[in-house]
Design brief:
The structure holds two protein chains of two kinds. By secondary structure, chain A is an alpha/beta fold. Chain A has 19 helices and ten strands. Chain B is an alpha/beta fold. The chains are: A alpha/beta, B alpha/beta.
C-alpha cells in the first residue's frame, strides 16, 4: 500500500534520512548518484526530485510511518469537520429557535453567527502576516490554546506512539527550525477546516429550519435607531452580494414592518398589519441571513482554508528540501560522484613474528671481531670504533658489503671471513633504513658460512642523530623473522 | 588517450603509502613499521561518475634492487636494450618469490605508468638507493622524484643533487601536513612529466577543487543543523506520583546533557565522513552548558494544556453553553446563563482535572505533572558550540589521510570570536529566532549554514 501525500512523504523521508546516517557515506554517495542520474529531469524541482528518490528508495518501514501519519492527519481532519458541522448546526439551531411565541431577533442572529466570524477573520489575517506584531504575538500566545487546530495537535498525543510519532514531528521542538512554518499553517488549516465546517453546519441548519418550519424574524433595539438608519446599515452589510442576489437585501418596507417592541408581550411597529401576509413577510429575512453567513463566514473561510492548505503544502515542500540530511541528499544526487579511494581492500603481508630480537640495555660483549659496513653506514670510523669499544667490541677490521658491492662480492666476503673462524661478526647498518630482503639474504648467507652459535651482532648506527625507538623496533621485528637465536641487535649510543 | 597512471615507487618505509593515502584521501592504506607490508600493487583511481581521470598505484618497495640490476646488466647489451631487458626481467621472474616486489612495482611502469619515486628527505642519501634509481632509469618512463619529509632533519639539498641525476623533476612534499592546495599543486606537477597527461590532470584538479568546496558547504550545513537542534532541543519528563522532584530534575538534566553530547558527536562523525575520515580517534571534552539553573520548569498538563489553560477552556466552554440559554430567552436571563456557565465550567475543570489526568486512553495518561528542559537560552552557548565545530571542521579539512594519530581538540580555545559586528548581528538574529522558536521560513537552517560556511573560510576559532 502506498501514499502519495506530501505529508506522508515528509514523514517517510524524515525516517529514511535518520536511518540513512548509519550507512557509510561512500555507499550513500554511490547509491544516490545512481538514483540522481535517473532523476536529472527533476533537478530544477528539488522537492519533486527528493520525493521521486523516496519512491526509488522504497523503504517499507518508513512508508508505514508515512501511512500512519497520514491516517492520523486525515482522522483529525475528519474529527474537526464533524465537530465543526455539529457546532454550526447546534449554534444555529439555538439562535434560530422559534416556538411561535417570540420571533427571532435578526440582530441576535447576525451578532452570533456573522459578527464573531468577521472579527475572527481579522484576527486570522493579522496572525497570517509574515511579520510579528508584539501585541498580537502575546495575545496569540495567550489564547493560542483555544485554536481548534492546536487542540487537534494536542489530541494527536493520545493516539498510540506509532501513529503519533510521524505527525508529531511537525511540532517537535527539535524540528522547530525547519518545520515550525509548516506546523503553523497546519494548525491554521485545521482551524479553517473547523470554521468552514461550522459554516456548512450553520447553513445546513438554517436551510433545514427554513425548509421544515416557519420562522419569523424581527429586529429590535432600545437604541434610538430609525428604520432608515437600520435599513442603511443592512444595505451596507449586503453590499457584497446585492448585485448578485438582490432578493437577499432587506427592503425598507420589510425593515419597517419587522421592527419589534416587547411591550405588551411583544408587538410589531404596525400591529394592525399583523396578518398571514405579514407572517410570510417576516420570514423573508432568511435570504439575508443565509447570504450574510455565506458571505462573511463560508466564503472567507473557504478562501482562508485554501490559503492555509496552500501555505501548509508550500512549507511542507520547503521542509522536504530542508530536513536534516535532505540538502546533503540533493548534493549527492546532483553532484558528480568523485571517488579517489582504492578499488579493493588492501592485501598486506602480516609477518609472523612470535618475538622480537632483544637489545641490551648496556651491552658488553668482550669480543674481538670484524665489522661489516653495510651500504656505507660508517662515515666516522674513529668515533665508531670508540663507541663499539665501550660495548666491549674490539674492531679487528672494517669490511664493506651491500650498497655498491655486488651480491657476488658479498658472498665472497662472507666466505672468506668465515674461513678465519671469527668469534663473531658485527654488521653495521644505518638504523634509519629499514632492513630489506637483500640484507636478510646477506645475514642468512653469513650464518650459513659461519655456522650456528657464532654471534652475529647487527649494530644500529644513527649517524648524526641517535637511533629512534621506532627504528630500533623496526629492525627488531624484521630480524625476528629469521628466527636466529644467535642474532643480536644492538644500538650504538642510546635509543631515543 | 590512455588514462594517466602513476606508480609510487621507492624504498620501503619511506612514505609511499603515506603519499598515496594523502593524495587519494584514503585512510585504508596500510602504514606499518615492518618493511614489506605492501606486498601487492593497489590502484587508487580518481573517477568522476565512473570516468577515470588518473590512477595512483601504490607498489611494494624495492627489496632486492642490487640483485635485479645485476641480472639486467648481465642481460643488456646496449642502452637501446635496457627497457626491453627490464621487461624481460619482469617476464622471467613473474611468480619468483625472490623478486616478487620488483616484478610488482615494475609491471605498471612497463605498461606506461609514470614514475613517482619517493624518498625520505629527513634522512641522508645513501648508496643503497642507486641501484633502484638506475633500474627506474632503465625503464625509460617519465618520472618525478618526491622528497617526503618524514622527520625533523633536513637533507633535502643532498637529495636534490642525487635525484637530479636520475629525475628531471624533483619536488619536496610532506605527506603528513600537506594542505589541500599543496596536494593539488603536486597533482599539477604530475602533468609536467608528460604533456599529454596535463589536460586530464588539470580537469581532475578542477573537479577536486569543486568537490572540496562542496564538502565545505555540506560540512557547514551539518554544523548548522546541529546548532539548530542543540539550541531548540527540549527534553520532557512526566513525573510519577511518588517521584522526588530533585532526583527527577537531576535525571532530566543528565539526559539533556547526553542528548546534546550525542548531537555534537553525530555532527563530528558526519563532518569526518564528508572528508573521508571514517575511523578517526577523537579526543574532545564535552561542551559545558554554561548555566545550570536555566532549564527546568514544572507544568501540569492535560491534553497538552496547562491547568490555567484548562480552567480557561472550561470556563469559556461553560460560558458558550450558558449563552445558548441567554439567547433562547432573548437575554432575559441578563447573561446569567453565560456567567453561571463560565463559573461552572471553570470550577468543574479545576475540580476534576486531577482525576481526568489519571485516566488512560489508548495507554496514555491524559495529563499529569511534567518537567522540561530547553530550549537553550544562554546567548553564549551557540557561539561555544559553533567555535568547537569550526575548529573541528578546520582540523579535519587540513588533516591528511596519512596522519593516523588521534585528533586532539582539547587544548584549543572554545568560543567563536567574531570580530565583524555585522556577521555577529546576523548570527545573533538567527540564534534569537531559534531560542524563541520563532521561525517563519523553513530555510532558516540554510541561512545559518550559509553564515557558517563563510566562517569556515575566514574564522580562526
Amino acid at each position: 500500500m502506498t501514499h502519495t501525500s506530501l505529508l506522508g512523504d515528509l514523514i517517510e523521508l524524515n525516517e529514511v534520512l535518520d536511518a540513512d546516517r548509519a550507512i557509510d557515506l561512500e555507499q550513500r554517495k554511490q547509491r544516490d548518484r545512481s538514483i540522481g542520474r535517473k532523476l536529472q529531469r527533476r533537478r530544477s524541482k528539488p522537492a519533486a526530485q527528493i520525493r521521486a528518490w523516496l519512491q526509488e528508495f522504497d523503504s517499507t518501514a518508513a512508508r508505514n510511518s508515512g501511512l500512519h501519519g497520514t491516517r492520523l492527519y486525515h482522522a483529525l481532519c475528519l474529527a474537526l469537520v464533524i465537530t465543526g458541522l455539529l457546532t454550526g448546526w447546534g449554534l444555529t439551531s439555538a439562535v434560530l429557535f422559534y416556538d411561535g411565541n417570540q420571533p427571532i431577533n435578526i440582530v441576535n442572529a447576525v451578532v452570533v453567527l456573522v459578527l464573531p466570524q468577521i472579527l475572527l477573520l481579522l484576527v486570522w489575517l493579522v496572525a497570517a502576516l509574515p511579520i510579528r506584531l508584539p501585541l498580537f504575538s502575546s495575545i496569540g500566545a495567550t489564547l493560542g490554546f483555544l485554536n481548534p487546530g492546536r487542540l487537534a495537535g494536542h489530541l494527536a498525543g493520545i493516539f498510540s506512539a506509532k501513529e503519533n510519532r510521524g505527525l508529531a514531528m511537525l511540532w517537535d521542538p527539535d524540528n522547530v527550525a525547519i518545520l515550525a512554518p509548516a506546523a503553523r499553517w497546519l494548525f491554521s488549516f485545521w482551524s479553517q477546516l473547523f470554521a468552514f465546517s461550522f459554516n456548512i453546519g450553520a447553513l445546513t441548519a438554517a436551510f433545514f429550519l427554513v425548509s421544515f418550519s416557519d420562522l419569523a424574524f424581527v429586529w429590535s433595539t432600545t437604541l434610538d435607531i430609525s428604520n432608515e438608519t437600520f435599513h442603511q446599515l443592512l444595505i451596507t452589510l449586503s453590499t457584497p452580494w446585492s448585485a448578485f442576489i438582490p432578493d437577499a437585501v432587506p427592503g425598507a418596507e420589510l425593515v419597517a414592518n419587522s421592527r419589534y417592541y416587547r411591550l405588551d408581550e411583544g408587538s410589531l411597529a404596525d400591529a394592525a398589519a399583523a396578518s398571514p401576509q405579514l407572517a410570510i413577510e417576516l420570514g423573508q429575512w432568511w435570504p439575508f441571513l443565509i447570504a450574510a453567513i455565506s458571505c462573511y463566514g463560508l466564503l472567507p473561510r473557504l478562501l482562508t482554508l485554501g490559503i492555509s492548505w496552500h501555505r501548509f503544502h508550500h512549507h511542507l515542500r520547503n521542509a522536504v528540501c530542508n530536513l536534516p540530511g535532505a540538502p546533503e541528499l540533493l548534493a549527492r544526487m546532483n553532484s558528480p560522484l568523485v571517488s579517489t579511494l582504492a578499488k579493493r581492500p588492501e592485501h598486506t603481508h602480516a609477518a609472523t613474528v612470535s618475538s622480537i630480537v632483544d637489545t641490551s640495555e648496556a651491552p658488553h660483549y668482550a669480543i674481538r671481531c670484524p665489522v661489516i659496513d653495510w651500504s656505507g653506514a660508517c662515515t666516522r670510523p674513529d668515533e665508531l670504533t670508540v663507541q663499539l669499544g665501550n660495548m666491549g667490541i674490539e674492531v679487528l677490521e672494517y669490511l664493506r658489503a651491500g650498497g655498491r658491492q655486488t651480491t657476488e662480492q658479498d658472498e665472497e666476503l662472507a666466505a672468506s671471513l668465515c674461513r678465519h673462524r671469527p668469534k663473531g661478526v658485527g654488521i653495521l647498518v644505518k638504523a634509519w633504513e629499514p632492513p630489506l630482503l637483500d640484507f636478510l639474504d646477506f645475514v642468512r648467507g653469513m650464518r650459513r658460512q659461519c655456522g650456528q652459535k657464532k654471534p652475529l651482532i647487527v649494530l644500529l648506527w644513527g649517524g648524526q642523530d641517535s637511533v629512534s625507538a621506532a627504528d630500533r623496533e623496526t629492525w627488531q621485528l624484521t630480524l625476528a623473522q629469521l628466527g636466529d637465536p644467535d642474532l643480536h641487535v644492538e644500538v650504538i649510543g642510546q635509543a631515543t | 588517450m590512455t588514462v594517466p597512471a602513476f606508480a609510487i615507487v621507492g624504498h620501503p618505509n619511506k612514505g609511499k603509502s603515506s603519499i598515496v593515502s594523502t593524495l587519494s584521501q584514503d585512510e585504508s592504506v596500510a602504514i606499518s613499521l615492518i618493511p614489506g607490508t605492501t606486498i601487492d600493487n593497489r590502484c587508487y583511481p580518481m573517477a568522476v561518475d565512473g570516468e577515470i581521470l588518473y590512477e595512483l598505484i601504490d607498489t611494494p618497495g624495492f627489496q632486492r634492487a642490487r640483485a635485479a640490476l645485476e641480472w639486467m646488466r648481465s642481460h643488456a647489451g646496449t642502452a637501446v636494450e635496457r627497457t626491453d631487458t627490464v621487461r624481460r626481467f619482469v617476464d622471467e621472474h613473474q611468480g619468483d618469490p625472490l623478486f616478487s616486489a620488483e616484478c610488482s612495482l615494475l609491471a605498471p611502469i612497463l605498461e606506461g605508468a609514470g614514475i613517482l619515486y619517493v624518498v625520505d628527505g629527513s634522512r641522508p642519501f645513501g648508496e643503497d638507493y642507486e641501484a633502484e634509481m638506475e633500474i627506474l632509469r632503465w625503464t625509460g618512463q617519465p618520472s618525478l622524484a618526491l622528497i617526503n619529509m618524514i622527520g625533523d632533519s633536513d637533507y633535502s639539498e643532498d637529495w636534490k643533487k642525487a635525484l637530479g641525476q636520475y629525475f628531471r623533476i624533483v619536488r619536496v612534499f610532506d605527506a603528513m601536513t600537506a594542505d589541500f592546495d599543496r596536494r593539488v599543486q603536486l597533482l599539477l606537477a604530475f602533468g609536467e612529466i608528460r604533456e599529454e597527461w596535463r589536460g586530464a590532470l588539470e580537469k581532475a584538479v578542477h573537479i577536486l577543487r569543486e568537490e572540496q568546496a562542496r564538502r565545505r558547504t555540506l560540512a557547514a550545513r551539518v554544523i548548522a543543523e546541529m546548532l539548530a537542534r542543540m539550541i531548540t532541543h527540549v527534553r520532557r519528563r512526566k513525573l510519577t506520583a511518588d517521584e522526588v522532584m530533585d532526583d527527577a530534575r537531576e535525571a532530566l538534566l543528565q539526559a539533556y546533557k547526553q542528548d546534546l553530547a550525542v548531537m555534537e558527536q553525530d555532527c563530528r562523525d558526519e563532518v569526518e565522513q564528508i572528508y573521508n575520515h571514517r575511523n578517526l580517534e577523537r579526543h574532545e571534552p564535552g561542551v559545558q552548558l554554561l548555566d545550570n539553573d536555566l532549564f527546568s520548569q514544572q507544568t501540569w498538563l492535560l491534553f497538552g494544556l496547562t491547568r490555567q489553560q484548562l480552567i480557561a477552556t472550561g470556563a469559556l466552554g461553560g460560558a458558550a453553553a450558558g449563552s445558548v440559554i441567554d439567547l433562547a430567552v432573548h437575554g432575559a436571563s441578563l447573561l446569567l446563563g453565560s456567567g453561571l456557565g463560565a463559573v461552572a465550567g471553570g470550577v468543574s475543570a479545576w475540580l476534576t482535572s486531577d482525576r481526568i489526568a489519571n485516566i488512560k486512553v489508548l495507554g496514555h495518561s491524559l495529563g499529569g505533572k511534567e518537567i522540561s528542559i530547553g530550549p537553550m537560552r544562554n546567548i553564549n552557548f551557540p557561539y561555544v558550540v559553533l567555535g568547537r565545530a569550526l575548529l573541528h571542521q578546520r582540523m579535519i579539512e587540513q588533516r591528511t589521510h596519512a596522519y593516523r594519530g588521534p585528533l586532539e581538540l582539547a587544548s584549543r580555545p572554545e568560543q567563536l570570536q567574531l570580530a565583524d559586528a555585522t556577521t555577529r548581528r546576523r548570527f545573533e538574529k538567527l540564534f534569537s529566532k531559534l531560542r524563541k522558536q520563532e521561525t517563519w521560513r523553513a530555510d532558516l537552517v540554510a541561512s545559518l549554514a550559509s553564515l557558517v560556511e563563510n566562517q569556515t573560510r575566514t574564522a580562526t576559532p
